[in-house]
Amino acid sequence: MVPHLITALTGPINELEQRILDPMPAIERWFRLEWMEHTPPFYTSVDIRDAGFKLAAVGPRLSPGGCNNLPPEMLPLAVQAAMAAIEKICPEARNLLLIPENHTRNTFYLSNVAQLQRIFQMAGLNVRVGSINPEIKETTTIDLPNGDRVTLEPVIRGKRRLGLKDFDPCTILLNNDLSAGLPGILEDLHEQHVLPPLHAGWSVRRKSHHFDSYEEVSKRFGKLLGIDPWLINPMFGQCGEVDFAEGEGLECLRSNVDALLTKIRRKYKEYGIHEKPFVVVKADNGTYGMGIMTVRDVKDLDALNRKTRNKMSVIKDGQAVSDVIIQEGVLTNERINDAVAEPVVYMMDRYVVGGFYRVHAERGIDENLNAPGASFVPLAFEQSAHTPQPGMKAGSSAPNRFYMYGVIGRLAMLAASYELETTDPDAEIYD
Amino acid sequence: MVPHLITALTGPINELEQRILDPMPAIERWFRLEWMEHTPPFYTSVDIRDAGFKLAAVGPRLSPGGCNNLPPEMLPLAVQAAMAAIEKICPEARNLLLIPENHTRNTFYLSNVAQLQRIFQMAGLNVRVGSINPEIKETTTIDLPNGDRVTLEPVIRGKRRLGLKDFDPCTILLNNDLSAGLPGILEDLHEQHVLPPLHAGWSVRRKSHHFDSYEEVSKRFGKLLGIDPWLINPMFGQCGEVDFAEGEGLECLRSNVDALLTKIRRKYKEYGIHEKPFVVVKADNGTYGMGIMTVRDVKDLDALNRKTRNKMSVIKDGQAVSDVIIQEGVLTNERINDAVAEPVVYMMDRYVVGGFYRVHAERGIDENLNAPGASFVPLAFEQSAHTPQPGMKAGSSAPNRFYMYGVIGRLAMLAASYELETTDPDAEIYD
């Protein structure tokens, strides 16, 4: 189950949604059994694209930002899930050190840090925020626009442990996606729990690994439901050694884009969908909505202007792009006040704890909304589940579109769990 | 952590509350470690009495009713906690059979059944309601005033399993406190999970066992906080072979009441409390607020009228009273619209999932409120935790009186867990 939240799309539940709503107990049991075999990531956020005929998870973040966009009513759910996560991983924990991203002037991001600190304090831990930004040389308190306050303290690295002055944590919670590479200060901390593990950072992660795992998960889930996994899984290809700035390696890109557009056209024909196919080209190691472009025709690639090439060649923290994935684009049909919107689902441990909409007034239904100018609309709890419904089955509740988003979000989270198992450097091989 | 809920008592947080709020991380960690050693009851409700200078849990119910009084915003918390409970006990579960109390005409109670059914359906189980009431001979659907509907089906007992027609559950959830005795139909179901276990029913439970365990828990908790355990633990004594109807065994009662009133007077003097001490006499096996009377002076016992004697001599389901406990009375200082109120805390697995007030306009601050004429006021989420507070520590939130109620509720739940370990007929002895 996921929280009943008011979703923007108010039309009748379509066929795909019905096929996910009806077997709810079977789906929940399937997840229960999966989590017996696999460890959920500590916390996850997933962007959802809902084209009506097809759904997609754009790829989970394992050091999520934006949890300050969750409405206050959801705080108890997040805290309860955090308690469950701590109980499982480190019940004896007293002190938790939160390591945020290094951008210390972004008050939106710091509001997320303050909210995470609050959640873990309410779950019963002493929480302090340790910065690995070399510019933070002394305790720095930052007042935030919403009245919150974040105190960043410089971390102190001992031989085997990381801490702060007078603060020795048993658990280190990363809210830093490590896209600038793995900082040495975080390595070899074998005495402390590091969550999520270092290989969940973008110094190791690749989108292509994730979507390989997601394909496996969606095949298994499609089998459970008796549906074509394509309905929840965007197809993708990949290319190495692409240099957008120099215009090298674009041949591979061109042939992949062409092949993928053809495959999508075939699928659209099979399902009688009258939309124009498009693909999204993404840096394989990219985050933060950087290094992403929408391609509707292979000819578009010949006409890339200087600005787009520059945009595609460098991503967050100045990392160069060379490997790209080419992914089937999925429209988003959700709208709030005429602006295109995509739901973002938040999970803590195995539980969906809430969501919000990312809204972008200047972007189209086939574009990435994670871009400057986006705003956030919290999803409130839906109350209608508790009002009488004519012909309602005993104990049943009104269908809720958000349930489906929570299922897709959890599929992406499960795929991330598979992905982390595959890339775990300390994995023991039992073959 | 427990949900931040708006409580009726709005005065400043007093010394006792502050001593529970301040060490919150230490308290939560203490509970985490306790739950590593002990199994929480499946679900629990606890009545809280808050005298300001002293707090008490009136005794947990392990087959709680009234969960329909929880506000709808709390449903997601209850569902999430139910998922956690199921994952731990029976992750492979598909079908859950809910066994309610036999009073099939009480629509307030049946609304509780409908709400429980909804919670476990949303947690991902097929849930049907099986009645063990011999009057239910065929499927009976009852429409409830709030638009809900409950379908009661007669249970079918096989040699080793209990089920319904075309419904073979792997888990049986009792919402029946078994105060009429243990029905044979529930015995020897070794192939199915029965939750809570049969010895959590009032055919086995005794209040005196519970308060023995609660005393142990409050001593350990008092040591953690450095407080006198009396501040959270009502003193008590017990008498066997009391026959109110015939006026026999009242000598023991009189001497216990006298001794307890003297002990309370001494404690009140020690703490400078200017209240009149009182004790509560309760049937040791009583539930539903039956078999309870308040005694302010030992002389009151000589003047018991026929009505009170009759009231005390028989409890729910016609069970005769012979063992009684004599417990220190704790005032409740909470009021809603001038009516005396006591908070009721709801827990699912180890989590506090919400609460409401039991309000009784015709009862005094030293009387039992669980009586005809009581009404229920849901506790809403408190929002002020998210507004800026002058001088607020980074990440901290406004103090919340309900936190303390959640702590006391969980102490009572922990005591119930100790109690069930002691009374478990299948316990293995490792001495």
| Silhouette of chain A | globular
What does the oligomeric state look like here?
Answer: homodimer
Q: Name the structural class of chain A.
A: alpha+beta
Provide mean pLDDT of chain A, rounded.
87
Name the chain pair whose interface involves the most residues: A-B, 61 and 61 residues
Give Rg of chain A in angstroms: 22 Å
Distance between the termini of chain A: 36 Å
Supply database-style keywords:
homodimer, 431 residues, alpha+beta, six-stranded antiparallel beta sheet, six-stranded mixed beta sheet, 8 helices, 21% strand
What's the quick description here?
The structure is a homodimer of 431-residue chains. Chain A is α+β, with helices and mostly antiparallel strands.
Give a written overview of the molecule.
2 copies of one chain form a homodimer. In chain A, helix 5 (about 205-225) crosses helix 8 (about 400-425). In chain A, strand 5 and strand 6 form a beta hairpin. The model of chain A is unreliable at about 385-395 (pLDDT under 50). The first copy, chain A, is built from 8 helices and 18 strands. Chain A is globular. In chain A, the strands form 4 sheets. In chain A, strands 1, 2, 15, 16, 17 and 18 form a 6-stranded antiparallel beta sheet that branches. In chain A, strands 5-6-4-3-9-10 form a 6-stranded mixed beta sheet. Chain A has a 4-stranded antiparallel beta sheet with strand order 11-14-12-13, sandwiched between helices. The first copy, chain A, is of the alpha+beta class and about 425 residues long.
